[in-house]
Amino acid sequence: MTENIFVDGLGKLHVAGGAARLEFFVMLPSSQDAEGHPSVAPRLRVVMAPEALIHLHAAMRGLVQQFVARGILRPMEPALPETVPEMPEVLAGAGGGR
Fold first, then answer.
1. pTM above the 0.70 mark?
2. From the centroid of its chain, how far is CA 74?
3. Which region holds residue 74: left if phi is over 0, alpha if psi is between -120 and 50, else beta?
């Protein structure tokens, strides 16, 4: 059986040891940060080879195109930047800043 894991978003992306590491988080509605936003906690880390990341990128582009075609999403303008900045603020206060 395949396990389903729910996440609210992507927290950190980085390269370590020649592998891409994608860290996902969940929101904790019972806990809030200093600004009153729901706190977040790390939920899942996916570590993949560069080749797998390339395949994931192509698959995600196709998935986004399906959502756009169905009217669920609108195309993003401008296009995403070439690099993704670190997002430590997403995991601030959640014990995820490693």
1. no
2. 19
3. beta
Return the bridge partners of 28, or none: 39
Residue 76, classified by CB atoms within 10 Å of its CB into exposed (0-12), middle (13-18) or buried (19+), is: exposed
38 φ/ψ sector (left φ>0, alpha ψ -120 to 50, else beta): beta
Average pLDDT of the segment spanning 16-23: 94
Helix (H, G, I), strand (E, B) or coil at 73: coil
**Structure token digits, residue 38:** 């729901």
Q: Does 85 have pLDDT greater than 80? A: no
Identify the CA nearest to 20 among candidates 64, 51, 61: 51
Find residue 2's DSSP bridge partners.
none
Q: Above 50 in pLDDT, residue 98?
A: no
